[in-house]
């Protein structure tokens, strides 16, 4: 019987990346198209990454009039990016609830997983009850210790909500005054995750590559 040397290598621990994506009506057109392109580019970079200490898994939770788990946590090499469609209102609180359920689901996220990176993208203001679901997320073990990153698109976004989500003095909320800056944000996210995946301790947020972003677009 032929022996496969890979069978004797230590199994890499999952490193989850969860994207909470606003797909309300205001995201229609260029915004939703740019978001899809940015996500596709991020996933391709992840698929090209080798020799890491961790095994990247990604998930997408979308929120509009309702929130849904559009992409369950999936190894990046198996991800087929679903199409994003904009419609409805901004049920951000419902997305926080699904994110917490995902973090607590050991079938989706085994105990041995590294701490997740959670990414929030929005261009508006939540129109459901979001405070308690967000606080529950932040109070949870994994949610509270996760690396949380956020971007607000345009001038109508509620940046106070995004700052409450990030809740870290050294991690800014990114302001995408122009839609194409969403691409820069996701390149920043990509490099942040890649740095974690190759670090000696992937549970550390490390030094975020803030140099990839314009200082004028950062809100602490």
Walk me through the structure:
- Residues 16-189 form the VWFA domain.
- It holds the Pfam family VWA.
- This is VWA domain-containing protein.
- InterPro entries: CLCR, VWF_A, vWFA_dom_sf.
- The protein is an alpha/beta fold and 220 residues long.
- It contains 6 helices and 7 strands; from the N terminus they run βαββαβααβαβαβ.
- It has a 7-stranded mixed sheet with strand order 3-2-1-4-5-6-7.
- The longest helix is centred in the first third of the chain and has 18 residues, at 30-47.
Number of helices: 6
User: Beta fraction of the residues?
Assistant: 15-25%
Assign an overall shape.
globular
Mean pLDDT value:
94
The CATH first-level class comes to: Alpha Beta
| Terminal-residue CA separation | 59 Å
Features:
220 residues, seven-stranded mixed β-sheet, Rossmann fold, 7 strands, alpha/beta, 6 helices, CLCR, VWA domain-containing protein, disordered N terminus
